[in-house]
Structure formats: structure tokens, C-alpha cells
Amino acid sequence: MPQTPAQPINPGVRIGHVHLKVADLERALPFYRDVLGFEETYRRPGAVFMSAGGYHHHIALNTWESRGGVPPAPGTTGLYHIAILYPTRRLLADALRRLIEAGIQLDGASDHGVSEALYLRDFDDNGVELYWDRPREEWPRDEHGGIRMKTEPLNLRDLLSELETEVA
What we know:
Strand content: 25-35%
Order of helices and strands: EHEEEEHEEEEH
Distance between the termini: 42 Å
Radius of gyration: 18 Å
Largest sheet: 5 strands, mixed
Number of strands: 9
Structural class: alpha+beta
Oligomer: single chain
Number of helices: 3
Mean pLDDT: 94
Low-confidence stretches: none
């Protein structure tokens, strides 16, 4: 059973944005802007800031310490992946459509019970997860009420079928 800290963090706390070190801004930018659809909000020397919906930034790409660099070698520590949460399954399906159209390969696609997720790599080999959460009342639970996550293959055809239904 997971341990609860003596003083848990306030449930309103959120992870607000991520900065990724990239080797080349102009190579990295098309993935986040043109494929995923983030909007560029601000640029400064060595960095581009992007958002969804006009927020100051959700993702920043920078070359401050990494211009011309290479990805970390396997077996080293660092960022495993960033996770981008989509509000609906239909929008996750649209993200999958965008990836297919751009010819970007998936590393995996999983149904975790609580969520459905697509896993891939950006042009600098950073791990990226695109996912949507099922409503909390649908999350699988154990006999004590704890979350029971799983990792099963995600049916991509079924996910894409979300795009065939009309939105009210």
C-alpha cells in the first residue's frame, strides 16, 4: 500500500510547464508547433516558448546548455518523458492522426485503466507521452479503494474511430 506523507502537498498544486534542452531550435520546433499544434508565444535568444490556449507557456525549448548536443546515453539518469494531458479521448485521437500524417513512429500505446497513452520521441530523442484521463469514477480500484493501474495494448483503430463521430 502506498505511503502518505505526514504533510501532503495541497491537491491544487499542478506541474505548470517544462523546459526541454534541445540541440537545434529550428529542428525541434516543427514537432511541437506543426505536429502537436502548440502555439509559439515568445522567443528569446536560444529559446522558444509555446502554449495551448494562450497560457504564457507549457513547453519551452532551449539551447542554453545543449546547442549542437546529443541525447543522453542509455543507462543514464534524466527526464524519462514529458506527459501532455488531452482533455478528451477525441482530442487524443486527433493527436494520433497528426502523428500518423507526419510519419512519426510510436514507441508504444497503452491502456492504463485510468488513462490511455501514446508514447513517442521528439526530434532530440526526448520521451513524450500524449494521454487522456478517464473520468475518476471509471478508474479501476482494488478491494481497499486504491487505484489499480494496468498496462495493456491500446487499440489504435478504436481510438481513431473517435474522429468518425460527430461532436455535438
